[in-house]
Design brief:
single chain, 285 residues, alpha/beta, Rossmann fold, 7-stranded parallel sheet
């Protein structure tokens, strides 16, 4: 696989998996973070195609407009409402949940927003660490805290949180300490929600290998320079070297896992992790 083969594909209606679920209705709201691009955009579109009202949030206003435009182009069954916000600002997090509640009954939360920084621990800038931690771990915790009361006020008193984890929530690769710590933390958050949710507030995480997203393509050059190899070698050796499936997932493949987790098909999925990593973490040479 070369750099040309990791281009981010557009979500189409044909690639979206739908589930016949009475709770997938326009009166129920799904908050999706990181919804301006990549996996977050795909989750927003997929949730909307399954009939939900989606509160799509990101700090990237132009990207959110693209998500809304794509929803219109596809002709999703539900709707996508953009909510611009910065996950490093508590007041914005609070406003995001309130604006979502104004759209209907908040029933689902997809914590997808993420970022990356490549550096060895001894050189890792703490301002970058703090921002990654705020966006990828602290914000999901605070959003969950604010959403749980809304879950309990829904018609059946139930709700669900889906967290975008990673193979890096199972094992780590070098030069990504903030990302690794955050992904391990998300799995801890997932299990904590399940421990307190009494079966009515469910949670799950999704752990994948590398996915064709801007976050991945934007780190290719930095990883190549850090390791002293070519970009193509980063893709073939670092990203896919240990995977038994020699292709990256598309964002919509990941989004479809969120739909299954949120739906009645996931009713016994509570605190668990959906590990779709092509065999990266559970096999070895």
């Amino acid at each position: 696989m070369t750099q040309d083969q990791v281009a981010v594909p557009a979500v189409t209606r044909e690639t979206i998996h739908t589930v016949d679920d009475d709770s997938f209705a326009e009166e129920n709201v799904c908050i999706v973070t990181g919804a301006a691009s990549g996996i977050g955009q795909a989750v927003a579109l997929t949730a909307a195609e399954n009939g939900l009202t989606v509160a799509a949030t990101d700090y990237d206003e132009a990207g959110l407009e693209e998500t809304v435009d794509r929803a219109d182009e596809i002709g999703v069954a539900g709707s996508v409402a953009p909510v611009v916000g910065d996950l490093t600002v508590d007041e914005d997090i609070e406003r995001i949940v309130q604006e979502a509640a104004n759209l209907g009954s908040v029933k689902y939360l997809a914590n997808v927003a993420g970022m990356q920084h490549i550096d060895a621990i001894e050189e890792f800038p703490m301002d970058a660490y703090d921002r990654i931690h705020q966006i990828m771990l602290r914000a999901p915790i605070y959003l969950t805290k604010l959403c749980i009361p809304h879950f309990r006020e829904t018609a059946d008193g139930r709700g669900c949180v889906g967290n975008m984890a990673s193979v890096h929530g199972h094992y780590v690769t070098s030069d990504k300490v903030a990302y690794n710590v955050s992904k391990f933390g998300l799995r801890g958050l997932t299990q904590s929600i399940a421990a307190e949710g009494e079966g009515d507030v469910r949670s799950f995480s999704v752990s994948t290998g590398y996915v064709k997203t801007p976050l991945v393509t934007n780190q290719l050059q930095d990883t190549a320079e850090q390791r002293g190899i070519s970009v193509d070698e980063v893709i073939s050796d670092v990203m896919l070297g240990q995977s038994r499936v020699k292709e990256m997932m598309d964002p919509v493949d990941v989004a479809n896992l969120f739909v299954v987790g949120f739906s009645k098909l996931g009713r016994h999925l509570d605190g668990g992790d959906l590990l779709f990593d092509g065999g990266m973490t559970l096999t070895y040479e």
